[in-house]
Backbone:
């Protein structure tokens, strides 16, 4: 079983829909990251969070440390949101690499 | 300011040849990371440089893979005797401080797409 599991793997939505992508992890962490990878490969860090909720524009990330679960929400989705969204965790064991989920491929159709 | 840059953007090579991939991190970032993303797979950690410390090579898949970071800045990932399974996108990232109790944001380069024929 992967240490970081994302769901769904693929998601197609109509423009304007509210979107939720989920991430569950099995290790203790110091932080969780949400990344966005556009077609063409460029990766951008969206959020890094260790508790509670963060909001940036139409994007909201939440984390529940006790349940080892995080969600990424996109409000009023737009075709330009189409990308792969990747969840990654920083394990609590000190100087260790990020552990990545396999990503959720989102397609938003106009 | 300038972001992380990588070169070449695409590399096609024949099985058995050596390749070198280059990464220029953001100026002032002490930490540099190499990752690999194979088709349909998630990101896979390869190697991590932090300042003048010995690199964390725990992710390198075989001894055909090596990397160096000269002068605490530019890094080169070398793959010797390439195999078809080495075909992937190789991504470099840098961050201000690196791993540890205080994690910080990693800034990714555009990647090098390696195809081994």
Residues:
């Amino acid at each position: 079983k992967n240490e970081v599991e994302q769901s769904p793997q693929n998601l197609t939505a109509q423009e304007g829909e509210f979107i939720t992508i989920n991430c569950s992890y099995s290790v203790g962490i110091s932080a969780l990251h949400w990344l966005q990878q556009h077609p063409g490969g460029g990766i951008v860090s969206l959020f890094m969070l260790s508790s509670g909720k963060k909001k940036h524009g139409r994007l909201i990330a939440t984390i529940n440390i006790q349940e080892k679960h995080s969600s990424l929400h996109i409000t009023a989705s737009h075709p330009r949101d189409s990308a792969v969204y990747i969840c990654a965790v920083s394990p609590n064991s000190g100087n260790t690499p990020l552990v990545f989920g396999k990503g959720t491929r989102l397609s938003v159709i106009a | 300011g300038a972001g992380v840059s990588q070169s070449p953007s695409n590399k096609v090579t024949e099985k058995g040849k050596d390749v070198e991939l280059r990464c220029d991190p953001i100026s002032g970032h002490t930490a540099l990371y190499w990752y690999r993303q194979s088709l349909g797979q998630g990101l896979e950690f390869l190697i991590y440089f932090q300042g003048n410390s010995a690199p964390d090579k725990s992710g390198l898949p075989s001894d055909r893979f090596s990397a160096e970071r000269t002068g605490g800045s530019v890094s080169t990932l070398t793959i010797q005797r390439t195999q078809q399974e080495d075909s992937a996108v190789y991504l470099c990232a840098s961050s201000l401080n690196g791993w540890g109790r205080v994690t910080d944001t990693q800034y990714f380069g555009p990647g090098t797409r390696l195809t081994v024929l």
In short: The two ends of chain A are 36 Å apart (CA to CA). Residues 33 and 48 of chain A are 4 Å apart (CA to CA).
